[in-house]
Each structure stands twice: as structure tokens, then as C-alpha cells.
Amino acid sequence: MTATRKTVSVAIATYNRAAMARQAVEAALAQSLAPEEVVISDDASTDHTEVLFKQWLAGSSQASNVKYIRQPCNSKGVGNWNRAIEATTGDYIAWCSDDDRFLPGHLQASVDYLEAHPETGLVHSGFVDLLENAAVSRQEPRRLRSNQPLPVNRKTLVRYLIRYYDWPFHPSTIVMRRAVWEKVGLFDPRFALADTDWFVRAAMEFAIVLLPRHGVLNRRHPGNWSNRVGSARMQCEIYEIVDRAIGQLWPRQPVRRVLTRCLWNGNVRARLALTICARVRSGHKAAAAVAWQSLAYGVGRALPKWMETLGSWLIEHWPLAGSGNLPAADGLRETVSPP
Fold it and tell me: pTM (2 decimals)?
């Protein structure tokens, strides 16, 4: 750390998760490198979020470090993410989803690395799954991708996204310099995966480093936002986001651009094919059909109509191998493509 200590802000956007959001705030305040402020932006929750936070802050000795903001109307998510970060004032900004929690030392390790490496714009890290449903609660650390800091930049971005397609980053582990937010700009509400779009735009402008440590508890539960978005839709958005970036990376190198696009196109189609196979095996014909439509029309050049029709017919008439009910673990640990 330098002699002049930089200030740290934590931004949390929430909607109808009063108890989880309070745990996220408490974990942020308990960090060894205590943030100067925790901003929590409530997206017009209809549960008791507002009452809980006002009562808690009224009796908390840490109330001066917490800024509670309530949106006048619901933004559908992404607008509230922007509101939370825009309300921060620190030199460093740490993001945390309302259903996640920082692990001990997360802010200290992240800020220490940024202070020691001024060429790096932001860092992220690994995470520990906290698997939860009505009957289960257990922690499962995700395997770290490297035992050394792993850099990502505009030159390595596409290769990194292909290799780590399922979880290229965890948004709740991001700690950035304020200059990064000011340069990259707001989350784009056109995308359900607005955080992925933002991460790609950030990598186009700044060096990013994945730290070899677990930074957050990633709570997996039936109400996860990623579960609601759905695997096929997520993959089509990822395809669009990265395809656009490829065009920006090599505007004057058409051969490299075309070859990279072919590689990226093939990667996403292969992932969708894996999704289709997994859904058919588990008896989820409707989900398999959605994934097939995404593969046929949502990724690159559309398949011929006869091929799309044949694929739909095969999915509809394929003998069911499963019951149609996902095992409990699938609901707890949803990924972009099946394991």
C-alpha cells in the first residue's frame, strides 16, 4: 500500500432480497480493508428491504459507512446496477451482487494488487459456491484457474473467453479503479448479460488480472438471476457481445477477423450442441428445442430451413432418457453450458 491510502467503495444493487442484501453489506463492512462506504441501491423492492435497512442502520454503529438509496420505480435490473456504482465516490470500486458475500481479505488482496501494479485497471478472482435450496446448504470452492495472476487484455480476450466460456469472470469479485468505470461507461441495458458486455468493453481498454484466490461466496439458489435468463439466451447474448468486439479488435485485418469469428462461431455452436444433448438426456424437450432454435438462428449464419425442421423433429421424437425433472444439484449450480 502507498503512503496516501486510496478510498474504497462497495456497490450493491438489490431487489426483493432483504436478508441476503443485509448479509452482503455486513460482509463488506467486516473486511480487513474496511470500505469508506457501502452503497446499496434498492430497485423499488416490494418486500421489507426498505424497512429492514432503515431499522438496521438506525441502530448500527456503522450507519455512517452505508448509503441506502431507493429507486422510485423498478428499473428491471441493469439501470439499478448503474445507479449503485454511480453513487459511489471511492478511488476504487468493488461490485457485489445482493445474494453474494465477500470472503475475508477480498478487498485487501484486490486493492494491494492494484496498488502494486498501476498498469492493471481492474482485478477479479475465483469464488466459492454456496449451494442452497430448501434442504441443502453447503460450500464448494471452484478450482482456481492458475496459481499465478492471470492477465486478460484485448490481445488475449477472445482466447480467454473461449477457454473459460462458462464463467469468464464473477462480477461480485471485480474491484476496479474509478478511471476504468469513467472510461468504459455504464452497463448497457440492451443486454440481459450487461455485466459480460461491460467486462468485454473493459478488456478492450484496460489490462485485467484474475487473482489466484477465492474472493466471494457465490450463493446458488433457485432465484438466481442467471437461472431465470436461461442457458440458450445467455449463449446467444455472449455470441453477439464477443462477435461485436472481434469486429473492433481487428478492423484492418480482415483475414484475422474472419478466422477469429469462425473460431468463436464454432465454439458457441458446440456449446449449444452440448446444451441440447444434456437437455434431451434429462427429458427437457422444451429447453432442448429452445437451444436448437438458438443454434439454428441466433449464432452466425442461419441454418437452412430443412435442417432446422429436421432438428426440431428429432428433438420432439427422441426417446426420453430422463424424467423431465432436473436433479436438485442442477437447480443449485446452473452454468452456461452443461458440465
Answer: 0.86
State the average pLDDT for the chain: 87
CA gap 162, 44 in Å, rounded = 37
**CATH superfamily ID and name for 8-227:** Spore Coat Polysaccharide Biosynthesis Protein SpsA; Chain A (3.90.550.10)
10 Å Cβ neighbour count for 140? Answer: 12
| Helix/strand number for the chain, H first, E second | 13, 10
Q: Are 119 and 170 in contact (CB under 8 A)?
A: no
107, 35 contact by CB (below 8 A)? yes
- Which cell is 103 given? 470472503
DSSP conformation letters of 43-84: ---SSSHHHHHHHHHHT-TTGGGEEEEE-SS--TTHHHHHHH
Strands 207-220 and 101-102: antiparallel
pLDDT, tens only, 310-329: 999 898 888 754 444 434 33
Query: At what angle are helices 194-205 and 78-86 packed, to 10 degrees?
Result: 50
Residue limits of CATH 3.90.550.10 in the chain: 8-227
